Every structure is written in C-alpha cells, then in structure tokens.
Amino acid sequence: MAITRQYAHSRSPGRRPSAGGTAARLILGYAAAVYVAFLAVTVYAIGFFAGAGVPKGIDHGPRSPWPLAVAVDLLLLSLFAVQHTVMARPWFKRRWTRLVPVPAERATYVLCASLLLALLFWLWRPAGGTVWHLRGLGAGALAALYAIGWVVALGSTFMINHFDLFGLRQAYLHARGAAYRPPPFTERALYRWVRHPLMTGFVIIFWAAPVMTAGHLLFAAAATGYILLGIRFEERDSRRDLGEPYRAYQRRVPALLPALWPRPRRGIPGQGGTATRSGSAGRPGDPRPADERMPHGRPPAPDRDPGHLPRQVLRPR
Predict the structure, then answer these.
(1) Which one, of 245, 285, 238, 291, lies nearest residue 266 by Cα?
(2) Is 275 strand, coil or helix?
(3) Beta strands in 60-202 (DSSP E)
(4) Nearest to 192 by CA among 181, 200, 204
(5) 53-62, 95-104, 108-117, 283-292 — which is least confidently predicted?
(6) Are 245 and 278 in contact (CB under 8 A)?
(7) Of the N and C termini of the chain, which has fewer Cβ atoms inside 10 Å?
(8) How far is Cα 280 from Cα 244, in angstroms, rounded to an integer?
C-alpha cells in the first residue's frame, strides 16, 4: 500500500556493478522474502477493510472509550505516515544506505511499511457508531466498487514496473551484476486517464464500504488527506525533475478522478512540437511517428528521489 523508492544517489546508470556473489544472492533472497511478506499483508488488507475472511477487520476488536480509540488509531496512522515519508527522503537515504546496501534499500522500505501495516491491523480499535449501513443493491454496488478499487490499485503497479516498485528488480539486477536504471517517464493505460491511479485505487478502497462506521470513516478521511498532501509534494518534485513535459501532463490528465473526455494534447511552449506519448516534444515537420521522434522519456535527475507517494508516472517507488 503505498510506496517509495531508491532512485536517488544510487549507482550511476552507466556504471556496471561487479558480478553478483554470495552477498548479492543473499540480498536477492532477502528481497524475495520481503515481497512474500508484502503479499501476505496485502491479502490481509483486502479482508481487513472488507471486514470479512480475516481474524480481525477494521470494525472488530476490543472496544475502548472513543477518545482512547481515536488516539490509538491516529497514532498508528501517524507511525505509518512518518515511516512512509521520512524513509523516502533523499537525506535519509543518503545516511540509511551507509548501513543498508543500496540494492536492498527499496526492499527494506517495503518491509518497514508492511510491518507497520501489520501493526496497524493488529492494534486498530473500533471507534464510535455507524455512519451508514446499506443493504440490497446499494451494498452490492459498493462491494463491487471495493473490488474494482483493488484491481485499479494492484493493476497500476504493473503498468510501469511492479517488481521495481517492491524492490525485487533492484536486487535481481545486482545479483546479475547489471547496472540499475529506473523506469522511464511514461504515459500508458490508466496513466492516460489519471496521474496517480494507484492512489485512485486506494481512495476507492477506503470509501467503498457498505457499512461505514466512525472508525472506518476516521481511517478513510485521514488516509485520503495524507494521499492528497503527498501528491502535492510528489508533483512538486516531478515538475522540478521533468520540467515542461510533466507540466503539460498535469494540464492534460487529472490527478485522481478521470475526466469525462480527454483534454487535447498540445505542443510544449517554446519547442514548436507536439507532445509525444511520453510527454516529450517532437520536431515540427518530422515525418516519423511521434513515438519514434524522441526517446521514450528522459532519465531522472541523478540526485532526486520520487517522494513518499508513488511517483508512478515517473518511476514507481
């Protein structure tokens, strides 16, 4: 659930690391074990928010006075938010990778996020009464929307590079002795409709509840606010890293909710061309197709980090 990555201050894209040995294979095994743990937490999360199929859902557990329940729940949410934010910052990564091997940094981030989510699921306390309780067709529609939210969230991770997002690709390339290159800026599939489809999926998941209790509402409101705030920081970095191509992408594609009809593609001011699929500008008069006129995206700045919420359209971390 959510995300962040190791692109800044990693080895130079052009520098080929030495062939993997025992240490590299251990890092790969570590990343694979973390990925399995992430899958387990994700499967539990599906049941947790639905309140079905797991030992403890979001509305289950010991009852406490509502001020205590709210305080505990906000503390759990804050721990996750702090980890998700601080561990993604370039200054933290520069210090952290003095202790943790660079190819294992992303997997370690995923491990910490997964452990904090598991802690949240374990200690979450129900709070208050029922805000709404739908039955019949209304309940069925929200249950279907909940399933769609998971399809959107998980499916979007495969539209850039799923295994890079969760740290397996970095460890695999290191074990092979291959240089790491982050996924390029690209615009395809759901990214043509919204800039942050992973976050769109999560927002749907949090709010598509046939039974919305006060505690569930607290989670949904706090998590949505964190997503909206994170997107602001995320896109500030994106504009700084990619410049006008990303600004043009922002003008054309909504952040979370798809537009009823797509906005027309326009050339980038001052370059006299038209936007390619990756948001770059082609040369006027060039007879080749747009996708052949320019390389597919541009490499990221060497010392920039994509931020604490997935800059999925740039490099899914």
Answers:
(1) 245
(2) strand
(3) 130-133
(4) 200
(5) 283-292
(6) yes
(7) N
(8) 9
Q: Cβ neighbours of residue 73 under 8 Å, at least 6 residues apart?
A: 124, 125, 127, 215, 218, 219
Q: Helix 168-176 vs helix 102-123: angle between axes, to the nearest 10 degrees?
A: 150
What span, in angstroms and rounded, lies between the C-alpha atoms of 164 and 150?
Answer: 19
| DSSP element (H, E) containing 211 | strand 211-213
Residues 6+ apart with CB under 8 A from 310: 2, 3, 4, 5, 165, 196, 198, 199, 234, 316, 317
Which residues does residue 263 pair with via DSSP β-bridges, in sequence order?
A: none
Give the model confidence (pLDDT) of 177-188 as tens digits.
999 988 877 788
In 3-state terms, what secondary structure has residue 182? coil
Q: Which of 225, 227, 239 is nearest to 199 (CA)?
A: 227
**Is residue 306 within 8 Å of residue 237, measured between CB atoms?**
yes
Taking CA atoms, 305 is separated from 8, 18, 31, 88, 153, in Å, by 5, 24, 20, 7, 22
How far apart (Å, rounded) are the C-alpha atoms in residues 55 and 61?
9
Residue 138 near residue 78 (C-beta atoms within 8 A) = no
194 burial type by CB count under 10 A (0-12 exposed, 13-18 middle, 19+ buried) = buried
Contact 90, 47 (CB under 8 A): no
Distance CA 315, CA 304 (A): 11
pTM of the model: 0.75
Q: Which two tokens stand for residue 157?
A: 């991770």
